[in-house]
Amino acid sequence: MCAQTITAGNGTLQGFKPCNPSGQICASDSLIKPVAQTERMAPWRTAFSFSLPHRLVDNPLLLTIGRFDGRHPSLVAATTPTQLLIHSTTQTAGGGVSLLNVGESVTCVDAGRLHPTLGRDWLLIGTAQQLRVYDVHENQDIFTVEVSDGASVVRCLPIAGHPAEGGNVLAIVGGNCSVLGFDDTGVEVFWTVTGDTVRTMAAGRVTANDAKPTSKLLIGTDDYAIRVYEREEALHEIAETEAVAQVVAIPDYGFAYLLDNHTYGVYAIASPTSPPTRVWRHKKGGSGGGGRAVVAICVMDVDGDGQNELICGCVS
After folding, report:
1. Pairing between strand 233-239 and 11-16?
2. What mean pLDDT is reported for the chain?
């Protein structure tokens, strides 16, 4: 399947099959056409658009989306090193914008349903020394814990062998060579080590042909490595050519990755006993990016055909 490219302003969104065995992503001008004319895809249209009254910090680790009332999505982003903006589509006062003063420099944020029965997301805030969990809906702190190795990345993720495997998640904090996991009360229930400062984390049932699938933890670090963990044990380590900026789980298949030098690609995990195998990769300016640098990736079934696509955000 060729690349399907949608251009809006100066930004570009691309989708293509992650299991493309040849890695040949078509990007000629003749193939960039309105999405309504492409096979099996409905026309794209703008779902929403709004402007914010503040400049945002240019750091993807300082932006997240959460359903803090259990239903409606809200955007969280940093406006300064110590202040977070929360934009709600249901709040009318202040243009739907409220500000949260953290009091110290924020290094990362995420949102997720850390509580097993509450039914709404909490906001996770990482700093150089702490993890703070905050209930936006009730405007109150849930807990704050010290993290001696810092919080370079924080994610709500399922971890095999813990209560998260039943559908709940843990607050996973990646720091300087360590990864910690906390439950909804702030108790540390998970700990493991990695080779360098954690840059990105993801989790999911990423192994194909697995009769008893369990969630694997994917970690990308500054030492150019991607590691795959089951519980606290590192199953696989992959050496890349640059620091790992992002890893994204592909359910029942493997994972996608993005490096600091804008190289991106896909690994497959064929069975529970198989190591990850690189299926394809593209470098900055290659055919997959259409001459543009890829700066962000995500995975979803964008055309509703039952197969996941890899979506790439690009800049010129």
Report:
1. unpaired
2. 83
The predicted pLDDT at position 2 comes to 35
pLDDT in tens, 271-287: 888 999 999 999 865 55
Reported as a single tens digit per residue, the pLDDT across 198-228 is 999 999 999 988 877 788 999 999 999 999 9
Q: Cβ contacts of residue 194 below 8 Å, gap of 6+?
A: 174, 177, 178, 179, 219, 221, 225, 227, 234
Residue 263, classed as helix, strand or coil, is: coil
Please state, in angstroms and rounded to a whole number, the distance separating the CA atoms of residues 18 and 280.
9
pLDDT in tens, 83-120: 999 998 787 676 789 999 999 999 999 999 999 889 99
Instruction: Label residue 131 exposed, middle or buried (CB < 10 Å: 0-12, 13-18, 19+).
Output: buried
Domains and CATH numbers, the chain: 52-282 (2.130.10.10)
Under 8 Å CB-to-CB from 211, ≥6 apart: which residues?
none
Query: How many whole angstroms separate alpha carbon 278 and alpha carbon 255?
Result: 10
- Cα–Cα dist 261/278, whole Å: 18
For residue 9, count CB atoms less than 10 angstroms from its CB and return exposed for 0-12, middle for 13-18, buried for 19 or more.
exposed
How far apart, in whole angstroms, are the C-alpha atoms of residue 202 and residue 244? 12
Reported as a single tens digit per residue, the pLDDT across 120-155 is 999 999 999 999 999 999 999 999 999 999 999 999
Is 128 in a helix, a strand, or coil? coil
